[in-house]
Amino acid sequence: FMRRLFAEGSFSLAFVPVLAEYKARGDREALRHFIDHVCGTLAAILLLVVGLGMLAAPAFVTVFAPGFIANPQKFALTSEMLQITFPYILLISLAGFAGGILNSFSRFALPALSPVLLNIALIAAALWAAPYFEQPVMALAWGVLLGGALQLLMQIPGLIQLGMLPRPRWGWRDSGVRKVLTLMIPTLFGSSVAQVNLLVDTLIASFLVTGSVTWLYYTDRLLEFPLGIFGVALGTVILPHLSGRHAERDPAGFSHSIDWALRLGLFIALPTTVLLVLLAEPMFWTLFGYGRFSALDAEMSALSLAALSVGLPAFIAVKVLAPAFYARQDTRTPVKAGIASMLANILMNGLFVGLWWWAGKPGAHAGLALSSGLAGYI
User: Fold this and answer.
1) What is the pLDDT of residues 283-339, one digit of tens each?
2) S-S: 88 plus which of 19, 112, 148, 361, CB 3.0-4.6 Å?
3) Angstrom distance (rounded) from CA 224 to CA 272
4) Mind listing the pLDDT tens digit for each residue in 212-235?
């Protein structure tokens, strides 16, 4: 959730359009000055957030997973893992900052490849480090931290090559920094509605039958596969492009780019949605059907995946449409849409979970997934 706010989410949506403005002016010294001060200010704010987050980890678990309080061992383990992983926010946010600069100069390869390093770190932690921990899952928490460091380090050579490696400076009063912060405040909400909805789902799921949180997590992982490959890629590429068209006052190019991205997104999303609904259970068996992952786990995860997949076309369309507003520095419209979506999700959560409970059927967590999917269209 915090990563969506400070890394590729809210921060990038506020930073890249302002960066495009500085680039369009052609003053390289002013551009360097802007990048240095944004880097220093962002790092200072994030150090404070990370420090507070590590100290308040048990409070965060209480708020976001209150159902864990009844199990002291589960609560303590979750709190400890959160303390280890919280510094990842600083690392991945600075990586997102570096990626925003590289993307603005049409260098997409390094930022696009850097998430692979997180996966490699997690796999290495699971395979080789886990046996050395009393609680094997703790190895994954350290894997997240290592992955964040690798993601940041990978992008430094690209910045050096461009001559844009930041020299961090505190710049709270800098006009460019203030503009980014002003744009960022509403985008904190507007860019993270899907994550807020997911947090609400997790909060409610922590009160449902044991396994519900995990089934929703697996569901989110499988949906993030097409959404991450195509939706995030479209949003990443189109934001600097649209920001440039807006800065150059080219409305025809701006409109053409949105049309192209929407057509491509829906061309991928519509058949993918059908396949995810029809093949949900076979996919879970193929990917996870071994070890302690039971037939019930496959069935319940497939149920929520089929429900959440209904929203995939909407999620991908939002990845295109929201950056179109942010590129024009209109942060209000996505926020209004986000508020409507979040309120609808909360209402539908109560309705669908209540109906499932009333019917006495297993799989109430799928009602949470269906609510999030429909809220995407709203």
Assistant:
1) 999 999 888 889 999 999 999 999 999 999 999 998 889 889 988 888 788 888 888
2) 148
3) 12
4) 888 988 998 899 888 878 877 787
Q: Is 347 in contact with 200 (CB distance < 8 Å)?
A: no
Q: pLDDT, tens digit, for every residue of 117-166?
A: 999 999 999 999 999 998 999 999 999 999 999 999 999 999 999 999 99
* In contact, 291 and 126? CB cutoff 8 Å: no
The enclosing H or E element of 294 equals none
Distance, in Å, from the CA atom of 46 to the CA atom of 91, rounded to the nearest integer, reads 9
Angle separating helix axes 312-327 and 251-278, nearest 10 degrees: 160
| CA gap 147, 88 in Å, rounded | 8
Token pair for 255: 């409109």
| CB 323 within 8 Å of CB 238 | yes
What was the pLDDT predicted at 193? Answer: 66
Say how far apart CA 242 and CA 221 lie, in whole Å: 29
| Sole residue written with tokens 């609904």 | 277
Would you say 248 and 24 are in contact if contact means Cβ atoms under 8 Å apart? yes
**How many whole angstroms separate alpha carbon 7 and alpha carbon 166?**
17
The 10 Å Cβ neighbour count of residue 90 is 23
Handedness of CA 61, 206, 278, 194 (dihedral sign): negative
Per the CB < 8 A criterion, the answer to whether 370 and 349 are in contact is: no
Rounded to an integer, what distance in angstroms lies between the CA atom of residue 235 and that of residue 228?
10
pTM for the model stands at 0.72
